[in-house]
Specification:
417 residues, alpha/beta, 2 domains, eight-stranded parallel barrel, two-stranded antiparallel sheet, 12 strands, 43% helix, transferase activity
Length: 417
């Protein structure tokens, strides 16, 4: 059933509404979406590398392989699998994933050192991310290199990887705490002298506003138009997704992200949020099978033993719970009119999260009671429904939680007696 189009707002046939979602119409205006935004971008998933830098977390060989296979099934373009130079266990896992010949590219992580690249080669990889800090204070005080030496080191590593038949990506981290003119010069020189396959600009500490990120990528793409840019961001101020949208608006080709937002400190921007957000809010495809998001999130949660917050975007366990009687009543009326995503931006089934769950508790209304009585095949008149509603509300206030359905059955049974 299709909803009726109102005189002052159309739903049918629009990019912001369909059988499973209802989002903001302005998202799809050209002046909002941005003239440089691409119709599709790719996901470079870093769960197995940067995700492992979550304090106290480590993947063993089988876990690394299992998550890698799941990421491939999810549809990410490339998987950053870790640093082979760290351990033989890492190398074995990377080799196993390479030998599987998955659809996703298997990409080791390397410092700008020949020995790191050799270890990646020894795993059979054909792609590699070559990293180095670009912040001048990092380089002078930690690495002991001048800007000229930094460029020489990075360029030499990239050219060496290319000589070995590999496709190198340059990743310049701690870039947003540097003056932009300096960073632009470093990236421009690396691009000019080494021509990597792609370049990653990194907001390592999540300290750039989305407005700054849009400016940065606009200028980088003007200066270096022939090399694809990727964006890697952490979430220190809760701005990671906003910065992703800004980067996409400015024309980036790829986003680095991790399942459940794993990563150092506040973590990386979450793969599930990037995939769902770009597809459902901007119509931008990432290659991700949205229906497999819930499963992949639970798998990584089980293996990592790091619990996802109940209200986490996209994969939180309580995202699609509704208790308020007013909300349940609105869902019922809008559903009958053909609007399925009534009180949520999209249906949970779209991202593999089951169905909307009507919960009973202190804020339940008669619509919630009717819903569950109908589900349970129990008949009651209006007076009984009103009394049951008050009993449920009181019990919810006493327990300070939602009630299990078995408890509701007990309440109904006692009441009906």
């Amino acid at each position: 059933m299709k909803p009726k189009d109102l005189e002052y707002m159309k739903l049918n046939g629009t990019p912001y509404f369909d059988d499973s979602r209802w989002v903001c119409p302005l998202n799809y205006e050209n002046k909002i979406r941005g003239k440089d935004a691409k119709d599709s971008i790719y996901i470079h998933d870093v769960t197995l590398r940067d995700g492992e830098q979550t304090c106290g977390l480590t993947w063993n060989e089988d876990q690394r392989v299992r998550i890698g296979v799941a990421l491939n099934e999810l549809g990410v373009k490339s998987i950053e699998v870790g640093m082979p130079i760290v351990s033989d266990e890492n190398k074995r896992a990377i080799r196993r994933l390479v030998d599987m010949k998955l659809d996703s590219e298997i990409v080791p992580f390397a410092r700008s050192l020949k020995k790191d690249i050799d270890e990646s080669l020894d795993c059979g990889a054909t792609r590699v991310v070559i990293e180095h800090a670009v912040n001048p204070y990092d380089n002078e005080l930690v690495y002991g290199v001048s800007p000229e030496k930094l460029v020489d080191r990075v360029v030499s590593a990239i050219l060496y990887a290319k000589e070995q038949g590999m496709k190198p990506t340059f990743m310049g981290w701690d870039a947003t705490r540097s003056s932009f003119d300096y960073v632009l010069k470093i990236f421009t020189e690396v691009a000019k002298q080494a021509k990597p396959e792609s370049m990653v600009f990194v907001d390592s500490f999540g300290v750039a506003s989305p407005f700054a990120i849009e400016f940065i990528f606009t200028e980088l793409r003007k200066a270096i138009p022939n090399i694809p840019f990727e964006f890697h961001v952490h979430n220190e101020f809760g701005l990671a997704m906003g910065s992703v949208f800004a980067a996409v608006r400015a024309g980036v080709s790829g986003i680095h992200s991790s399942i459940n937002g794993l990563g150092e400190r506040t973590g990386n921007v979450a793969t599930e949020e990037v995939a769902a957000g770009l597809k459902l809010l901007m119509g931008i495809d990432t290659g991700i099978d949205l229906s497999k998001i819930g499963y992949t999130s639970r798998l990584v949660e089980d293996i990592s033993k790091i619990q996802v917050a109940n209200n986490k975007p996209v994969v939180g366990k309580r995202l699609f719970w509704v208790e308020s009687g007013i909300v349940v009543d609105a869902i019922d009326k809008l559903n009958k009119a053909g609007i399925n995503a009534a009180m949520t931006p999209y249906l949970p089934s779209l991202v593999g999260m089951g169905e909307i769950q009507v919960k009973l508790g202190a804020f339940s209304g008669q619509a919630s009671i009717k819903y569950w009585l109908k589900r349970l095949g129990i008949e009651a008149n209006e007076d009984q429904i009103e009394e049951l509603t008050e009993i449920v509300r009181k019990e919810g206030r006493i327990r300070n939680t939602v009630l299990e359905i078995d408890e509701f059955k007990r309440i109904v049974g006692d009441f009906m007696k």
